Every structure is written in C-alpha cells, then in structure tokens.
Amino acid sequence: MGDREFSTPRCVKTRSKDLAVFGGVPAFGEPLHVGRPEIGNRAHLLARINDILDRQWLTNDGRYVQEFERRTADLLGVGHCIAMCNATVALEILIRALGLRGEVIVPSFTFVATAHALQWQGITPVFGDVDPDTHLIDAARIEALITERTTGLLAVHLWGRPCDVETLSAIAYRHKLELVFDAAHAFSCSYRGRMIGNFGHAEVFSFHATKFVNTFEGGAVVTNDGELAARLRLMRNFGFASPDSVVRLGTNGKMDEVSAAMGLTGLDNLDDVVAVNYRCYKAYERALTGIPGIKLLTYTDTERANYRYIVLEVDQAQTRISRDHLTQILHAENVLARRYFYPGCHRSEPYSTLYPEARRFLPETEKLAERVLCLPTGSAVSADAIDAISHLMRLAIADGAELTALLSRESDEDVPVARRKAL
Ligand code: T4K
C-alpha cells in the first residue's frame, strides 16, 4: 500500500461539554481530510520519475502517457483512452468534439466543473433534479426538460455509483441527443457488470489528487468510437496531425509524463486501495448503525465499486442538530468533513444570477444540499479513527437540541468558553 499515515484519536469523549467546539482538546492531533491522496508504492513512482528525467522526455504523448492510456483502456475493456491534463478540460474538449450547442441537460447536484464545462463554451446547462435515494439524475424527469435547443445529456455517476444508463440511453435515442457521462468519481466501477467507461458516446474520468486513482492533476476521455478518439487526440494537442501540420482548432489538454507515472503507480495499487476503502466503508456502516437521523449512502454489492466516498445524509428532524452544526463540531475535532456538493451548481455563480428560478424546479437537490456530509476515508484513516468519528457524531446527536441552541447563540465573549460554561 505504500506509506500509511493512520491518524490515531488521542481521546474518547463521554460528555458533550468536552467537545473541542466548546474549548476541549481536539480528538485528533492532525487534520483528517476527505480526499486524501493515495500515494501507492513510492519507490516505484520515483523509479519511473527518474527514468523520465533520464530520457528527457517530459510530455507530448510520451511512453508513460501511452502506457497509462493502454492500461486504462484494458482495465475498462474500452476501445480508446485519451489522457488529458484534468477532467474539466477533458469534458470541454469532448463537448466541443461532439458539436454540442444550445442546451444540455445536467444535474445540479455535482461538482461545479460539470456545469462550467458547458457554460464555458456558451452552452446552457439545464439542471435536472436528482433521485433522493441515489443522488443521481432522475431519468423520469428528463423528458420534461427537453426543448428544440437540447443537444445532449451530461449525466454524472456521482460517488462512483452508476446512473440509470439504460433509461438515459433510451431517452437519448428517442430524442436524437448525445449522451455523455461525467465519470469523474467512477473509475473502476461497473454498471450491470460492465465497466463504466463503455456507456453513452464517451465518458470522462478525473485523476485529480483527491480521486480514487490520481495523476496529481489529470483526466481522460474513454470511448469505443475510434473516429471520435482520433478527433479528441488532435484537439488535445492544438490540432497537430504531424509536426508541421495543424488540421483543426485545438487546445492544450495533454497529460504530462510525471502525471502518467503517478497514474501507473496508482493502477499497480488499485486492488489494495479498493480493499482499504471497502474496509473503511464497512467500519463506518457498523459504527454509524443506530444513530438516529444518520443515513449512510450504500454501494451495491453486485456492482464493482471503488468505495472512495463515505456519504451521509443528516436528517435534522431526527438528529435535532443540523448538518452544518455537526460539521462545525467535527471540524473543531480536526475531522474535516465536507459538505459536497453544497450549495448545488444552480446556487453558484454564474448560474444563480443567470437562472434565479432554477431552485424551484430542484426540490430534491435543494434538500440534499442541506443534508449531505462526506467523511474522511482511505489509507490515512484507521479503524480506531472511524470509531472515534462515529462516537463524536453519536455524542453530538444525543445532545442535539442543546448543542443547536448553544451553537446558534452569538456572543462577544470568548465563544467556546461561554458555550462550555452554559452546558
Ligand atoms: N466532475 C466531478 C463530478 C468532479 O467531482 C470533479 C472534480 C470534476 C468533474 C472535475 O475534475 P478535475 O478537473 O478536478 O480533474 C476537489 C477537487 O479539486 C476536484 O477535483 C473534485 N472533483 C472535487 C470533488 O474535490 P475541492 O474544491 O473540494 O478541493 P480542495 O482543495 O478543497 O481539496 C479537497 C480535499 O482533499 C480537502 O479535504 C483536502 C484534500 N486534499 C486535497 C489535495 C489537492 C489533500 O489531502 N491533498 C491534496 O493534494 O475540489
């Protein structure tokens, strides 16, 4: 697994007055991040980087990028992998290569890059609501959004869980729309036993540092359409067909060699990372069981998953403490939980100004944006840390109403001490 950095809790708290938000000692001495990168075998990575330096070939379709593309395509059983500098640029190049224009239907409950990739090219993202159980775009509501300007569907396999590909494909076919997937989270995941990467016209992965396999920064388009793949290769390299021949408009979307070396090291390590993530997921499942108002998003055992995200929903009606106050409490304990994907693209700029009415049509997105919380996982998080995080949540929820009252109160005094005295 390479370097492990288990963060051990330094104390177990039994009373909510000892929480760090009230001035107590933080349960963890070091911050526990969501999205901590997996480094893999450092010696193998450094050997590859040394080889790159010795060869003096640093970028522009080098041998490590080619190997990364080949191994990725083999792993997914897909015809073509075109590695890029990040997933946002990969989405932009793909959207342009397919000639999308007008309006494209996309979920709002996603990282803002999904919508930006469209808007950046003058395409209107039309936000579709999500299914409250899966957090994925609700296929049943898509047809109502289609107009004569709609040219495509850009669905997102959020948290690595597969969209309803079959229904989306049928809609796309019926309305002659391009179907593409933002598969940023879904590397090494499957839909009905087939690897993600094989669906729609093309799919886009992210290999950002925070992702399941990382290349520091990086992304890729994968597709089974050879003609599209050739176009994408030209477009990611300024349109160069050969050294002196530019045959179309292009940009610089290339992945460099050191990034590919990191990606290859990640591919070597892939099964170990899945095993670690799975253990963490199961440990959270056990530890969170029975906490009222806390629901852990589940992965289907019949599909291949990477278990990269631990996603909770906080139902304040039961916890009597909001997701945001819970986040505040965890942060004070050095557990840097994240509110992905708050507040939703439609409430972020430029969309909230351009489409101020969007929220009225996105009730499930609005609810989820208030409820979802992602917890730290992966090889940097030990079983003890998971127990401690779950224990902190249990403690906070047991006194939910009192803590809500205290945390909502503003004071000019030393706030943590004043709050502690009040308990
Ligand atoms: N589509 C979807 C559905 C996506 O989720 C994303 C990216 C994209 C498209 C676009 O992919 P790229 O163009 O990025 O390839 C982070 C990532 O920057 C972003 O890639 C990712 N999604 C998103 C979900 O998370 P932020 O704004 O949350 O990043 P930041 O800096 O707050 O870091 C996140 C957490 O990771 C923190 O807890 C710190 C930790 N971290 C981060 C880095 C960079 C580390 O521990 N080490 C690190 O090196 O967006």
Cα shape: globular
Q: Which structural class do you get from the secondary structure elements?
A: alpha/beta
The rounded Rg comes to 23 Å
Unique ligands: ligand T4K
Total number of domains? 2
Q: Provide a count of the helices.
A: 15
Instruction: Give the N-to-C terminal Cα separation.
Output: 44 Å
Strand order of the largest sheet: 2-10-9-6-5-3-4
- Work out the number of β strands: 16
The overall pLDDT average reads 95
The CATH topology of the largest domain, please? Aspartate Aminotransferase, domain 2
The multimeric state of the shown protein is: single chain
Largest sheet: 7 strands, mixed
Q: In CATH, what is the homologous superfamily of the largest domain?
A: Type I PLP-dependent aspartate aminotransferase-like (Major domain)
**CATH class term of the largest domain:** Alpha Beta
What this model shows, in words?
By secondary structure, the chain is α/β, with parallel strands linked by helices. The chain has 2 domains: 16-35 and 271-337 and 376-422, Aspartate Aminotransferase, domain 1, CATH 3.90.1150; 42-268, Type I PLP-dependent aspartate aminotransferase-like (Major domain) (Aspartate Aminotransferase, domain 2), CATH 3.40.640. The chain is built from 15 helices and 16 strands. The protein has helices at 42-55, 63-76, 87-97, 112-119, 165-174, 226-236, 257-268, 270-288, 316-319, 323-332, 351-354, 363-371, 383-398, 400-408, 415-422, and strands at 32-33, 80-84, 103-107, 124-128, 150-156, 178-182, 190-191, 194-195, 202-206, 219-223, 240-242, 245-246, 294-296, 310-314, 335-336, 372-375. The radius of gyration is 23 Å and the shape is globular. Residues 33-37, 86-88, 110-111, 113-114, 156, 182, 184-185, 206, 208-210, 219, 336, 340 line the site of ligand T4K.
